[in-house]
Amino acid sequence: MMQQPPLIDPFARAITYLRVSVTDRCDFRCVYCMAENMAFLPKKDLLTLEELDRLCSAFIGLGVRKLRITGGEPLVRRDILTFFRAMGRHLDSGALDELTVTTNGSQLEKHATALWEAGVRRVNVSLDTLDPDKFARVTRWGRLDQVRRGIEAAQAAGLRVKINTVALKGFNEDELFDLVDWCAAGDMDLTFIEVMPMGDLGNDYRVDQYWSVRDVRARLEERFTTVDLAERTGGPARYVRLAETGQKIGFITPLSHNFCESCNRVRVTCTGELYMCLGQEDRADLRAPLRAHPGDDGALVGAIRAAIAAKPRGHDFDYSRQRADGQVSRHMSHTGG
Ligand code: SAM
Ligand code: SF4
Fold first, then answer.
1. Contacts (Cβ under 8 Å, ≥6 apart) of 80
2. What is the pLDDT of residues 262-272, one digit of tens each?
3. Which of 15, 83, 102, 301 is the least crowded, having the fewest Cβ atoms under 10 Å away?
4. In a domain, 2, yes or no
């Protein structure tokens, strides 16, 4: 692939990390993410697997080194392994450093080996509780045993598993140490995510479930010694090591501004909208240039460059008045978390 000048935004940030949502559909209905009755997009609106390939390959040609596939639930998309295998060629060529996936784990038992063969080495599995009844409640449609089998299959296939847990006050507060112990026993890193004000989810999502990861950390420090790690991913995660167990624990505070200055990432929705910032509505349509020029990516690359030239400095979330100011109307399942 011809290497082009890299993507640098107006604040001198190099864009090296792309998250792509490959579907808006999901086999779960997590209360903080989706309404129970979701109207999903018609198939014609979604990028085809070929269009996803062209889009990701264009970004890789522009310097993206890390590609994370998300959704909705990426592993429920038909033939998605074809796409993973296609992206594997960029790993083989050395153009891409890492191909990863964020999943609810429900389909991992089926796909773990194929993901490994495609070149995936790490998966993030979202899991908020180890209690089967609570799991059924928070995901509405999910089954914990299926996800646990998926995690085991992933590890058996050689994939490194990281657990992502949304911190929810009054829901998994009492499981903090159980989750830490369970991850330690399974040699899995664990990251806590603050709940974000996303979409209109009716009564199931409540701002009073907000539990700051600063409080999560303080609770952890009642039992463990935390050592700050210098590691930065260019995203909203900060990491500590627990001195007693050696475990790495992450904290994602999407509502704070303190990571924007090092932001290295952009997101593309399953319809080909490029969001330059998770917390802003600014976006660029990449589906139009993809479809208008099926055999030539010149217009696509032009649209990507123009969009990056308009990447905002940071986002607008503000929980300080206990309401979801800066709330954006789209669901996480649309932009892909
Ligand atoms: N279905 C996959 C999964 O659950 O991992 C991938 C998509 S999901 C939208 C990506 C991540 O976003 C998950 O870890 C999920 O817990 C998180 N998420 C969804 N809605 C959220 C919200 N309102 N606030 C914080 N995290 C959220
Ligand atoms: Fe589905 Fe993931 Fe959203 Fe849960 S968080 S509803 S698993 S997309």
1. 22, 23, 49, 69, 74
2. 888 899 999 99
3. 301
4. no
- pLDDT of res. 77: 98
Helix (H, G, I), strand (E, B) or coil at 186: coil
Beta-bridge mates of residue 69: 20, 101
266 annotated to a ligand binding site: yes
Q: What is the average per-residue pLDDT within 138-162?
A: 98
**Six-digit token string for 188:** 């899995």
- 183 is known to lie in a ligand binding site: no
Site residues for ligand 2, CB cut-off 6 Å: 26, 28-30, 33-34, 71-73, 104, 126, 332-333
Residue 207, marked binder = no
Full domain range(s) for residue 267: 17-335
Residue 10 lies in a domain: no
User: How many structural domains does the chain have?
Assistant: 1
261 burial via Cβ count (<10 Å: 0-12, 13-18, 19+): exposed
Domain harbouring 121, CATH code: 3.20.20.70
In the structure, which protein residues have their CB atom closer than 6 angstroms to any atom of ligand 1?
Answer: 26, 32-33, 70-71, 73, 102-104, 126, 164, 166, 193, 195-196, 198, 332-333, 336-337
pLDDT bin (cut points 50, 70, 90) of residue 204 is low
Question: What whole-number distance in Å separates Cα of residue 176 and Cα of residue 220?
Answer: 8
pLDDT at 262 (0 to 100): 80
**Model pLDDT, residue 207:** 59
Predicted pLDDT of residue 200: 60
